[in-house]
Amino acid sequence: MRPPEPFEIDHSVYPDVDQLSASLETIEDQADYMARVCGAWDFGVIPTDDTFWLFSGWRTVFDRFPMLHSPAYAAFRSQFGWIKLSGGSVLQANFERIDKD
What we know:
The chain has 101 residues and is mainly alpha-helical. The protein has one domain (25-100). The protein has helices spanning 27-42, 49-55, 59-64, 71-79, 94-100.
């Protein structure tokens, strides 16, 4: 399912930029956007459905620029059915630690 046209990125995650190109053409621009969205979600700002749709096609970005300490990054990977990456210090619930034993 595609987001409504025209698709716009979430400009609220760019408080430090006066004018922003919404193209995200380079993988580095995509990684920066991913990091900003994950950081916002880590602090309670839930991404839009459009962002979930967009990120579902960005596995290359997620694999090349892992954010192993971000719960949001881990949640995106889980939501899309991508393999969990080892490392990082994402907190675990008690049942997750118990289930490992």
